[in-house]
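Re: the 120-residue chain
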Amino acid sequence: MRIGEFVRTLNTTHETVRHYEQVGLLCPARDGNQKHYFDDHIQVFEIIQELKNIGFSLEDILLLFELRASVGCGSEVLIHEVKRKFANQIANLDNQIHDLTIRRDNLREMLDELSKVVPK
């Protein structure tokens, strides 16, 4: 399929697809000047989106893709690295939750103090 159909199929934008191509995440087949996308490109795009949605940067995703290309999908090395990155992401999220909880509690205290000065 051409880029227009690919974009419609994935409900994305031309700019997003071109950006993923520029950073090396998507590599469409070429026929002269025309690019063609296939089902495996759809799968790659969906994996990229899923990893982005859980907080991975495009750089991290590219590193995982490059590792997969060099050691093979399903290799112990790749699985170990994915597990490590997932654990790091969970730790980052835990830290963010902790920080947000403190900020929320501070805001509640301020609101309580303000409510004492000027009741609802």
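Strands lie at 29-31, 34-36.
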